[in-house]
Amino acid sequence: MTLHFPNMAEPAGRTLGDEEVAALERVIRSGMLNSVWGTEARALEHEIAELYGSRHAIACSSGTAALHLSVVAAAPDPGDEIITTPITDFGTVAPILAQNAVPVFADVDPSDGNLDPGAVAALIGPRTRAIMVVHLFGAPARIGELRRLADLHGLTLIEDCAQAWLTELPGGRFAGTAGHVGTLSLQQWKHITCGDGGLTITDDDELARRMRLFTDKGWDRAAGRSHESPGLNYRMTELQAAVARAQLAKLPGVVASRRRTAAELIEVLRPLEGPALRLPRADGHAWWLFPLVLPGGDAPELAAHLSAAGIPARAGYLKEPLNRAPLWGRPVYGSSRYPLEHYDPAPCPEAERMVSSTLLIIDWNEHYTSEHVKIIADAVASRPERASSRD
């Protein structure tokens, strides 16, 4: 019988269990499901802040909401620019547009798909307000260089850590703590989940104040029914928070397990590494996915070969990088294109090549075993050569 690869859409691929059921029952029996008057969301914020060593953590309804809060914290004027990566979920970019700012896509490092600081530096201009970096697949981005750029130009540095729970930066800090704001996601497919949910972390009191107000419709609860600033209802429910707290207790084990089997796969694939196959750097990686880079451009062929062997692998991660998404040139609000009039995202050749031909990703899971690793390694080792390479 073919070995099953657990995935995060099924019980066998998650760590959901009795602890989460008990947490839900605790909240339901309390009669208070709203976090304004409840205790679970505030407790989750305290636990996240303690884990990350941050002064503030703000819970919200989704990872995309957390990114929206981070853009609100950066306070761009209409038409200001935020530099980000084209290899990411649209949830990274949607909040930029929601605040009437303009996303500017910088190219990536072809070895791992993370933002190239040199490409970012070349795009900084008078309208640049922030840099939004994604720690792609759980690999730490070159955050030290990006922080220096941000500080040099007076920009807000936002870290999107949706895929990077407990990713370690050089020096031992967690991803999310090197920028001005870090964001986390609790969506179904992340390391831990409550279905949907998000958090922001920051050491800046003023940024925390802006984000907390925006989460609750700009409502300063201490002042009565008074709205201090514009905002939305991005509140996390007590049910989400209770499940997230139970999941948070399991997070170190989840990441440790993913790291253990990823290290096994790297070790067994090491003899195959060379010009045709680049292995990911393990340092600090949290392994949301396991990426491989094939500089020769045969990622689609290898992905098809692995899939035929029952391995959850696919080429490219996205259908196209976001700078090539079909939405550009279409209306933003009603029939208006504001703030994207005359907007044409610049080419990002490294990102475009990765998505079209050199990047391959393998779904990763804390329930993988050494047997799963062996099946993957054997399939990679037996990949068919391109005809051109045999000529």
TrEMBL record:
<dbReference type="GO" id="GO:0000271">
    <property type="term" value="P:polysaccharide biosynthetic process"/>
</dbReference>
<dbReference type="InterPro" id="IPR000653">
    <property type="entry name" value="DegT/StrS_aminotransferase"/>
</dbReference>
<comment type="similarity">
    <text>Belongs to the DegT/DnrJ/EryC1 family.</text>
</comment>
<dbReference type="Pfam" id="PF01041">
    <property type="entry name" value="DegT_DnrJ_EryC1"/>
</dbReference>
<feature type="active site" description="Proton acceptor">
    <location>
        <position position="190"/>
    </location>
</feature>
<feature type="modified residue" description="N6-(pyridoxal phosphate)lysine">
    <location>
        <position position="190"/>
    </location>
</feature>
<protein>
    <submittedName>
        <fullName>dTDP-4-amino-4,6-dideoxygalactose transaminase</fullName>
    </submittedName>
</protein>
<keyword id="KW-0663">Pyridoxal phosphate</keyword>
<dbReference type="InterPro" id="IPR015422">
    <property type="entry name" value="PyrdxlP-dep_Trfase_small"/>
</dbReference>
<dbReference type="GO" id="GO:0008483">
    <property type="term" value="F:transaminase activity"/>
</dbReference>
<dbReference type="GO" id="GO:0030170">
    <property type="term" value="F:pyridoxal phosphate binding"/>
</dbReference>
<dbReference type="InterPro" id="IPR015424">
    <property type="entry name" value="PyrdxlP-dep_Trfase"/>
</dbReference>
<dbReference type="InterPro" id="IPR015421">
    <property type="entry name" value="PyrdxlP-dep_Trfase_major"/>
</dbReference>
